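Technical annex, item 7. During the second reporting period the consortium partners agreed on a shared format for inverse folding records so that results from different sites could be compared directly. Each record opens with the tokenized structure and is followed by the designed sequence. A conforming record, contributed by the partner at site C, is shown below for reference.
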């Protein structure tokens, strides 16, 4: 497996909370934190790709002991600077392979971050790593978009996901390799900052198979944190897989 590249270094981390401000809205954060707190049911939680603590901090405020893994020291520095951030222990490393002490009632990976692992091997390894950290009966939650190929006209490889006077976002698809690159163009006065991040998009059924390879089974799939039904029209899903209870 290739060494992962840190795409969330200082220049990205510096503006992360600002450029993702819609995702910090309490209307987005609270249902996710409530959902995860309920699933943690008094146990410990492990966030893969904890970032600047968008979900970890509100979850900790709900009484859950949260630990994290992240590749980016720049992102974790922002977490540390926020109230309560110092109390969350974070291991710096690749969440597909990095191990931490102890086992967890809950592991979770939100905001499409499973797609930051750009090979199938790495995504499979991630499930295996999570399974090794879960206690029997524990749950693994992923929030990720359904690949948007239905909206890609035949032969087209570019799809805009954000267009405004100051920001442009365009996804570039490589359908054969199940890859996409998100290009972000930030316009400030006369300058344009360009950030391009590679992803591997992944199908719900493929995630179920990865879970099965790791000894986990699908408990439930919704289209959102408020347990909205998952249908053919759903653009994203919140899925929960579980580790079997220990045999008695
Ligand atoms: C989109 S941000 C999400 C951060 C946070 N979970 C949130 O919801 O705001 C993705 C995070 O995952 C981290 N990340 C990406 N790939 C990683 C990897 N292979 N191992 C560890 N962390 C990774 C990035 O550094 C970044 O902090």
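Designed sequence (site C submission):
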């Amino acid at each position: 497996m290739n060494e992962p590249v840190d795409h969330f270094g200082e220049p990205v981390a510096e503006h992360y909370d600002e450029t993702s401000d819609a995702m910090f809205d309490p209307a987005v954060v609270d249902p996710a934190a409530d959902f995860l707190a309920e699933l943690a049911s008094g146990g410990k939680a492990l966030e893969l790709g904890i970032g600047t603590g968008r979900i970890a901090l509100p979850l900790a405020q709900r009484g859950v002991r949260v630990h994290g893994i992240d590749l980016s020291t720049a992102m974790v520095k922002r977490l540390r600077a926020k109230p309560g951030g110092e109390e969350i222990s974070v291991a710096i490393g690749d969440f597909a392979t990095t191990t931490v002490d102890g086992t967890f009632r809950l592991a979770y990976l939100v905001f499409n971050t499973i797609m930051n692992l750009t090979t199938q091997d790495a995504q499979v390894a991630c499930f295996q790593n999570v399974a090794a950290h879960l206690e029997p009966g524990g749950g693994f939650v992923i929030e990720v978009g359904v690949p948007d190929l239905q909206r890609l006209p035949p032969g087209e490889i570019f799809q805009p996901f954000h267009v405004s006077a100051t920001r442009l976002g365009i996804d570039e698809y490589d359908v054969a390799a199940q890859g996409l690159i998100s290009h972000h163009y930030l316009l400030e006065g006369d300058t344009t900052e360009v950030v391009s991040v590679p992803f591997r998009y992944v199908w719900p059924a493929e995630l179920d198979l990865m879970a099965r390879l790791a000894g986990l089974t699908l408990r439930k799939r919704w289209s959102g944190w408020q347990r909205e039904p998952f249908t053919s029209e759903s653009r994203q899903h919140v899925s929960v897989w579980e580790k079997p209870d220990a045999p008695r």
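The first strand starts at residue 45 and ends at 48. The mean pLDDT is 96. All partners now use this format for quarterly exchanges.
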